[in-house]
Amino acid sequence: MRAKLSLLSFLAVSALSGVLATACQTYDFEPVEPLAIAQTTETRVVTAKASKPNLMLLVDTSGSMTAPVDPSRPACTTGRGLCGSESNPCNTATCPTRWSELQAAMSDFLDSSGSIARIGLTTYPDQSQGDSCGATSSLSVPLPGDTVEDATQLVANANQVKTRLLAIKNSSTTNEQVPVGGTPTSLSLRYVGNLADLQSASRSSFVLLLTDGLPNCNSQFADPYPSPKCFCTLTASCEGAPDIGCLDTDASVAAVQALQAKKIQTIVIGFGADFNSSSESGRRGVATLNGMADAGGFARECTTDAQCGAGDRCETAVGKCERRFYQAANRTELVNALREITDKVTVDEPCVLSFSASEQPSSEELLVVYINGERLAPGANTWNLTPAGVAFNGTTCERITNSTPSNPVNIEVRAVQRR
Q1: Residue 256: in which H helix or E strand, if any?
Q2: Which positions ≥6 away from 214 have C-beta within 8 Å?
Q3: What is the pLDDT of residue 201?
Q4: Which range has the top average pLDDT, 43-52, 219-228, 395-404?
Q5: Model's pTM, two decimal places?
Q6: CB distance 54 to 198 below 8 Å
Q7: Rounded Cα–Cα distance for residues 140 and 357 (Å)
Q8: Taking the CA of residue 221 as centre, how many other CA atoms within 13 Å lie in the half-sphere pointing to its CB?
Q9: DSSP label of 347
Q10: Which of 411, 405, 414 is nearest to 13 (CA)?
Q11: pLDDT (0 to 100) of residue 398
């Protein structure tokens, strides 16, 4: 029985220059003879850039971040009940909180991966005006200067980010900054989306959103309490906060869509056990972060359930995990999520053209490769198909790495996929 074939088309265009050069890369359908059959075509534009990407950290410092990571620990219950409030703070040495675990995980990440990207930091809510629902209005640590690519300078900037995060205490009696207030996610995303440094044509840009709670604090919420369209995120009633207490799903997803329209991808990490909950707030939290992850262009991809982790499964029809966002309940899981994200935002090797797992061709016979319009057969000095993708070899790789803006290399790969 003849196998059914489907063709997926990709177009990736950029300029290759220097060792960290980029290329005009086109993935398209190739009607490989004698397979001239009717097909549907999917086209998307992917710009592969070898310049270090921008990575703006948008970190939730709302009051719920001081809650225990594991409330069942005996040390988390004091004579005043479960710790985690301003009046009953946790001793993080014996009862780690979401904030103390985030600090530890981010310190590991920034120490080990500070040179992979041009890293900046902003936090929310903004407490500078005494408003517990204030959206981000300034940067804690700006991105490095526009032309900065040097590892030493990138690491120095990452160290500033680390220092700033560690300066936010889990609790304080001396007026130091502590996590407090609500979760104005949509408005803070809008602020980040207006940063000129993230709207760069010369490099990729990402926003890494790290949050433990349901977005709220939108004073323009369209259907305030007691409308049934308002899901109250507050422990108490929303009667005293009919708009800012409502779950702000639609505006948060729209803010991520606006970022994506500016070619800024949003990576979403849900931190804390709330998103594993079977409660209504847990289910709504998952749905909200899933919507944001899908809109941000960085949803978790998969081909098998194992790639999605425990308690999750792969929706093979769309090639994505059921839980689209990255979820971490503690320091270890957050470190693992950050490591996985690091692998994906790291600049690609210029002589390797990668496919996503669901789009990887099964053999070289299903590929046609052109360099500056010249069709190349696979070989020691041209290209081969590897598990990592199309690897350019020998003199062809030298030609790619030695290219310049005035002498670019145009790479075109046409792929047929067998299902």
Answers
A1: helix 249-261
A2: 183, 233, 247, 248, 281, 284, 285, 288
A3: 79
A4: 219-228
A5: 0.75
A6: yes
A7: 37
A8: 28
A9: P
A10: 411
A11: 85
Report strand pairing: 389-392 vs 352-353. Answer: antiparallel
Which tokens in the block code for residue 86?
């301003």
Residue entry with tokens 């921008």: 54
pLDDT tens-digit series, residues 31-77: 444 433 322 222 222 233 357 899 999 999 999 999 999 999 999 99
The helices-and-strands tally (H runs, E runs) of the chain is 7, 19
Alpha-carbon span 383 to 365, nearest angstrom: 13
How remote is the C-alpha of 106 from its chain's centroid? 15
Q: Which two tokens stand for residue 270?
A: 């849900």
DSSP state of 404: B
* DSSP code for 247: -
What are 108-111's contacts with CB under 8 Å, separation 24+? 108/335, 108/338, 109/335, 109/338, 109/339, 109/342, 110/158, 110/159, 110/161, 110/162, 111/162
**Alpha helix (H) residue ranges in 59-136:** 98-113
Strand-pair category, 54-60 with 205-211? parallel
Non-local (6+) Cβ contacts of 145 within 8 A are: none
Alpha-carbon gap, residue 224 to 111, rounded angstroms: 44
Helices (H), 167-296: 185-193, 249-261, 280-295
